[in-house]
Design a protein that fits this description.
Chains A, B: GO terms for molecular function: peptidyl-prolyl cis-trans isomerase activity. Chains A, B: Keywords: Isomerase, Rotamase. Chains A, B: InterPro entries: FKBP26_C (IPR040825), FKBP26_IF (IPR054016), PPIase_dom_sf (IPR046357), PPIase_FKBP_dom (IPR001179), SlpA/SlyD-like_ins_sf (IPR048261). Chains A, B: It is an enzyme of class 5 (isomerase). The structure is a homodimer. By secondary structure, chain A is of the alpha+beta class. In chain A, 23% of the residues lie in helices and 32% in strands. Chain A has helices at residues 29-35, 57-63, 95-100, 154-165, 200-217, 239-243, and strands at 8-17, 23-26, 46-49, 71-76, 90-94, 110-113, 116-124, 127-131, 141-151, 177-181, 184-188, 223-231. In chain A, strands 1, 2, 3, 4 and 9 form a 5-stranded antiparallel sheet that branches. Chain A has a 4-stranded antiparallel sheet with strand order 5-8-7-6. A 3-stranded mixed sheet of chain A has the order 10-11-12, covered by helices on one side. In chain A, a hairpin with a 2-residue loop joins strand 10 and strand 11. Chain A is globular, with a radius of gyration of 22 Å. The termini of chain A are far apart. In chain A, 25% of the residues are buried. The mean pLDDT of chain A is 90. The A-B interface holds A 186, 193-201, 203-205, 207-209, 211-212, 215, 221-232, 237, 239, 242-243 and B 186, 193-201, 203-205, 207-209, 211-212, 215, 221-232, 237, 239, 242-243. Strand 12 of chain A pairs antiparallel with strand 12 (223-231) of chain B.
């Protein structure tokens, strides 16, 4: 069975910058360790929907047509990866702007200005050159990819999107219950997620993304419900216990 | 019909300190204005469950037995209100503790130390006297109360607890849908509450309180579900729109 657009799959990959051979992302803990990669994430195959915009364009296209278990080495040009470098995104910022905020810029420093992440290229003559291009813009990338699984079970499809969009160290996906009936998917998340400290709005946004990927890619689903259940226990739960 | 323990009612009240006649809380916007009360809240009758611990003990007891529409003037001793004053809760704190944090204490200043609110009584000899008793501890209170409504409809009972525990300026209670079936109450909150910025944990706590008041005081209810619904629209909603 070959991978088609709209399929829910689990993907393993390692991405390198062609020019330097530097590994910048991987789903393998071993590869990350060997490359000295400083990223905090859980490793293992990641769930995505093919053509769902979860991957860079070149990768999305490359997995289409692959068989379950198949491995592939691909090369992706900048235009199908993180785009070309835009010289206009390199900006000169007066040193005094940094001083005002008590920041001492140095080459390689990563900073966020008005929501945009940039890297300091150099500091000279009272001016700081900051590059707001994506770090991988202009780079040709090499990927080793493997289609670890094509997900066919509807419940597993739903769970895979929860794992993709709702990263939470507290969540145990096996404690999440999914019911599918009459075009409605009802999701009872692991109890622990109720005690998440992130703003409710962020939870809503994650839930919206899960829902959208479901109704766009699962035949006949028009509605997704997230249900938080509170049940009367035989022994009364005190508020203090609930707050723990 | 007289008010019983476990009844859902809407209450109007104005509370004064007997000794001084000072109004400290009221459900009437007019009274608050006249008294120059600096409290930010919505006015109008507040929904409570009698005996549910939502009121001070003396008030809870006083409303029991009142008729719908009845008004009453009552006097409540400290032990049935905010407790007696505890001299041990007045503490001397070295001035240097305040200096460390750049705080300049003055009599009447309200501050929170390790989660406890206190008021500065005086500052002298390098020491600051702070009173951690409740501001109304030791005070005999006078209340004018009126039972505005005894809520008999089950849906309205549920909605009243949402209003009590889930204060949100964005929420329109008329847009909240309640279904009661087979011992389960399912609540579909007003869409706008999804975009609340408070931590999800706080939402969970409010939901727990609503649920507990429901199953403790509504016959046959054992389960409360809060459902957040996401529906496929004919025109696709973009993420940007959803984030607005």
């Amino acid at each position: 069975m070959a991978v088609n657009k709209g399929d829910f799959i689990k993907l393993e990959f390692t991405g390198k910058i062609k020019e330097t051979g530097e590994v910048f992302d991987t789903t393998s803990e071993e590869v990350a360790k060997d490359a000295g990669l400083q990223i905090k994430k859980t490793f293992g195959p990641i769930p995505i929907v093919v053509g769902g915009g979860h991957l860079i364009k070149g990768l999305d296209e490359a997995v289409t047509g692959m068989e379950e278990g198949e491995e592939k080495h691909i090369e992706i040009e900048p235009e199908n990866a993180f785009g070309k470098r835009d010289p206009k995104l390199v900006q000169l910022i007066p040193m005094r702007e940094f001083k005002k905020q008590g920041i001492k810029p140095y080459p390689g420093m990563v900073l966020t200005i008005e929501g945009h992440e940039g890297r300091v290229l150099n500091v000279s003559g009272g001016r700081v050159r900051v590059d707001f291009n994506h770090e991988l813009a202009g780079k040709t990338l090499e990927y080793d990819v493997r289609v670890a699984e094509i997900i066919t079970d509807d419940t597993e499809k739903v769970k895979s999107m929860i794992q993709l969009h709702y990263p939470s160290q507290n969540m145990d996906i096996d404690k999440t219950e999914v019911r599918i009936e009459d075009g409605t998917v009802t999701i009872y998340m692991d109890e622990m997620t109720k005690f998440d400290n992130r703003p409710y709005m962020d939870v809503t946004l994650a839930r919206f993304r899960i829902s959208r990927d479901i109704w766009q890619n699962m035949e006949g689903i028009k509605r997704v419900e997230f249900a938080d259940v509170f049940e009367k226990k035989d022994e009364e739960v005190t508020e203090e216990e609930a707050e723990e």
